[in-house]
Automatic annotation (TrEMBL):
InterPro entries: YjdF-like (IPR014509). It holds the Pfam family DUF2238. Keywords: Membrane, Transmembrane, Transmembrane helix. The keyword Membrane applies. The chain crosses the membrane at residues 12-30, 42-61, 68-88, 94-113, 120-139, 159-177, 280-299, 311-328, 340-357. It comes from the Archaea. This is Membrane protein (DUF2238).
């Protein structure tokens, strides 16, 4: 019988021996880097070791290891960094290597859990995971710079190119993940359809059943919550009016977009009977109002407002990610996300979305620099980018840890409404 990725975890001593020998090399290089103060190499080595011990912990045997060729690919960037001529070259090589680690971790999840991903979703998953790893490294390196007074990340431009490299190579690694699995008969990515978990079973497994809606948890009545939503809409409308009167397209555009978002829950409730309670609607309206007033006046005058709005916005992004995962799990036979992996997936989704957003802002800055045009989005330096990622992560953890019970009714209603409809080629 041919060796498959899943069998390799249990498997052959030669495979485990080669893989662990590679990890020993990683530890030695990481120890030398720690001694010499090379933070990027230390972070890479630590990440590789953490990924390598996942199957050992899960299966309780040191013979549990990734296929040796996957381990070799994962450590190749670290070996290349050793001979790189300068700091910038080492950084580029290692951030490109985030994709190889994302590939290895995705293979582990596929071999050790019940996760099932369609081809396009697997590619997206590896890409997001690579971007999230790159973001984590950049924040940790930035923190080292703040504490030690070093300049491992010399500028925002440098940091952005590192994140771009991690994201693009992640996309390529996702394609490799798909092709790698096709080499093993019977282990293809979509060869074993898994039915989605029923709503009540999912809620029980994820420990999110029996929770009251957000409307009932807030200290004011539902009527007062609806009144607050109207007040926030009027505030955003006033900002929109100011932008139109003063011919300020940036203010007008942002306010119009934020005002439209506040009506989305109402539209979905009335047209599709999606159960957005007053608490959820107020939550969404509050987040977009804070962004609207920040763009209008506060962002340029206060750093703390920006740090407050980012985690709140991240909770909305996490909610969208949760709804998307639940919908695909329920309606695509080839997609299954075990409940235990949902919180981590949401955090990765939000982190990756934040990276994509920062890359978009960086692109706007490049266009503005070459054309002289005023862009609706812009970055404000390395500290701004890194704190954005930090506070996005905080928001992601909040919604993944405590917010899912308040989203379950909405996501269940969405999956019910889409029952029997076309979902990504179904």
């Amino acid at each position: 019988m041919s060796r498959t990725p899943t069998r390799a975890f249990h498997g052959e001593r030669s495979n485990a021996a080669i893989s662990w020998l590679a990890i020993v090399v990683v530890v030695l290089i990481g120890g030398r880097a720690l001694r010499d103060g090379f933070a990027h190499e230390v972070l890479f080595a630590a990440t590789v070791v953490a990924v390598a011990v996942v199957p050992v912990v899960a299966l309780g045997t040191t013979r549990a290891a990734l296929p040796w060729e996957v381990t070799a690919v994962a450590i190749a960037p670290l070996l290349a960094a050793v001979v790189a001529p300068d700091l910038w070259s080492r950084q580029l090589v290692l951030y490109a290597g985030a994709a190889t680690i994302a590939l290895a971790l995705t293979l582990e999840l596929h071999g050790l859990t019940e996760i099932r991903l369609e081809r396009w979703l697997a590619i997206a998953f590896v890409t997001m995971l690579s971007a999230a790893i790159g973001a984590t490294w950049s924040v940790l390196t930035w923190t080292v710079d703040l504490v030690a007074g070093s300049e491992l990340l010399a500028s925002n431009t440098e940091a952005m190119w590192l994140l771009i490299v991690a994201t693009v190579t992640g996309l390529l690694a996702g394609v490799c993940f798909d092709r790698y699995y096709r080499r093993f008969p019977g282990e293809e990515l979509v060869s074993a359809p898994v039915d989605g978990i029923e709503e009540d079973v999912f809620a029980s497994k994820a420990d999110i059943d029996g929770h009251p809606p957000l409307e009932e948890r807030l200290p004011v009545s539902g009527r007062s919550q609806r009144g607050l939503v109207q007040a926030l809409r009027l505030g955003i409308a006033a900002i929109l009016g100011y932008g139109l009167v003063t011919f300020d397209p940036g203010v007008a555009f942002n306010a119009a977009a934020m005002l439209a978002v506040t009506f989305v829950p109402t539209l979905l409730r009335r047209r599709y009977d999606i159960p957005f309670d007053a608490g959820l609607t107020l939550w969404i309206a509050t987040v977009v109002f804070m962004h609207a007033i920040g763009s209008f006046y506060i962002y340029d005058r206060s750093f703390w407002w920006h740090n407050l709005t980012h985690p709140l916005s991240a909770t909305l992004v996490g909610a969208v990610g949760y709804a998307a995962v639940r919908t695909l799990d329920e309606h695509r036979d080839e997609v299954h996300m075990p409940p235990a992996l949902i919180p981590g997936t949401i955090v990765v989704f939000v982190l990756a979305f934040g990276v994509f957003w920062e890359i978009g802002e960086f692109g706007f800055d490049v266009v503005a620099a070459y054309t002289g045009l005023e862009m609706p989005l812009a970055q404000h330096g390395l500290d701004d980018t890194m704190t954005d990622i930090v506070f996005n992560t905080i928001g992601a953890i909040v919604v993944a840890r405590w917010g899912l019970p308040y989203l379950t009714d909405v996501t269940d209603a969405v999956t019910d409404r889409l029952d029997g409809r076309w979902i990504f080629g179904r």
